[in-house]
Design brief:
single chain, 667 residues, mainly alpha, Butyryl-CoA Dehydrogenase, subunit A, domain 3, Helix Hairpins, 4 domains, elongated
Length: 667
Amino acid sequence: MYRRPPAYISYCWCLIKRNGSLGPVLGPAESLLWIDISFLLCSGVVPSLFNPTYTHTIGRTIDMNDPGPDDQIQENARDVARKYHENHTQGRRQQQHQQHQQRHRNSGHKHDKANSGSSRDEEADRAKQFEEGMLEDGNVVKGFTEPGLWWITSTVFPLVAGAFGPLANLASVCALVQTWRVYVPPGASEIHGDRVADPAWLLGINAVSLVMAVIANIFILMTFAQRIRYRVSLPFTITLWYISSILLIGLVIAATKLLQEDAGKSFAFSQSYYYGTMAAVLYFIIATLLFTNYFNSTIKRRYPPSFRVLTIPQRTLMLQTTSLMFYLGLGALVFSKLESWEYVDTIYWADYTLLTVGLGSDYPLQHTASKIILIPYAVGGIIVLGLVVSSVRGMVLERGKIKMNRRAIQKQREKWLKELEAKKKDNDTRSANELIKEDFEIMRKIERAAESKGKWMALVTSSMAFLLVWLGGAMVFTFSERTQHWTYFDSLFFSYTSLLTIGYGDYYPQSNSGKPFFVIWSVIAVPTMTILISNMSDTVVRGVRDGTLWIGQKTVLPDAKNPTPSEQREQTDNAIEQVRDGIPCSPKQVQESIAAQIRVISGHLGFEPPKRYTFDEWIEFLELLELRWESEGWSWLSEDGPLMSGLTETEWVLGELCRKLEKALSA
């Protein structure tokens, strides 16, 4: 037995109470029964309409880092809500317009006043729909083949801002815990310099900048969690981050002038100075990304002014990043007390420890207590880091591949349609069964080609990102470690061994600028390398495996015998005839068969990867749906087919069967 959610019962009863039924044919009792049937059949979709934080799947454990089926279900639910709201709003506007016309006839009011009221109602409805996140691009939800021109600003920019906010806060903390200048005795290096007290105004402004940035980070986190309204929170958050950046930039300029005034003495900047510089840059980038998102949503109205386009797993990315930075900073505080290290030096040590780079030669642990605490500390940090890396790959790259796959499917489809049109002109004499089998095989070829292109594009993108962080990082290390006389090749070697988490330890940064940069760089670079390796497993490694199997089939492994064209034709005809013979004839039996199929197919919702049905299964579905390719010319490649729907095959078939069952019950 199942239990109806309270919101679901209220919603259904309000519909029946207002209309008397769900349609002109069904009465109240039959309407309630039909709603119950729909609830059972679509239990994977309906709950997300009433509770966005709840996703119900059958026979599947929910993965918080999975962006695929949960995201599609939420989009379907929003689409259902949008269509109902549009229909309801249209009916209300028509009723109001009729009332205005009646008053105009009765009292002689001017008709333009009624039009003005109607326009205001339309604008209010439109604003409400935008507020609820039901509209995109100013009018309707984007189609399946339309390129996601604003997907980067609506999804990627908030994710990047949310992920780098905690990192910027940690850099700002490091900018506050140590003085910004050190005195370097003659013959010594800046590493062993003596601290020089900072002016009180520098400490005060630095602290104010940190507090404002932390508040901004809390606000954006609460906005991601939908605890604070987007329109209220984001302008305040953007302002705080811009102010924090401006304050730190001013301090950096002032500190540079202070050093120039003491040019006669040997002074150098400490690690905290460079952490402050990096924090200022990160704050400015974060604020600019959020401002771009806010400008395009609220001012240009290119997508809904909210973060509802982000799925729940996407919103957890900021929480995971915050947990990682807090874990790193807290561990650094503990080990700095145990080993009597500077806090900024311990941040550097904790960073390459949790990222499993393990240089170790510059800061070895000396105390037994530190070594004991390191065991659980490293395990916990690696787990949190794994969650962050998995989230980044699963929610940014996978969503990007979905967009690329859709465009690739459209291009491949157009190419195949041209080839099919050319075959028709050549007086193709094949039967309808052969043509529908060819359409099915073409659909599978298009899907495989699109998936392959998406995987290789992801590999190219991650390879370019890897080269950027590798070559760019090596260039910075060459400049920062010039006192160690590093050549560019030495920096390339160090960066490469760090990216692969080899960490020989023969090269490591020692300058006050090199260590802070290594912390920021490694947090970005090591996950980038991990994503590259994962993408290589989907392309290069798979190609090597397939090549090995091909060589084996050509040499020692037995090769399967492929059927001849006549045998394939006979198998197709037999399969179709067998399915048609099993389809019931009476309306009651047809309804029972459809309900049975719906019960089975609903169990396939949420499969990862999505389930793809065989040709025989598809023929059975088409027979139940009464889609005739011989007379009506239905095709898998048509605009209303599963290939171009943007849905999984399970969702498309389930929706068509539900509509067919509704039509059969209403007959």
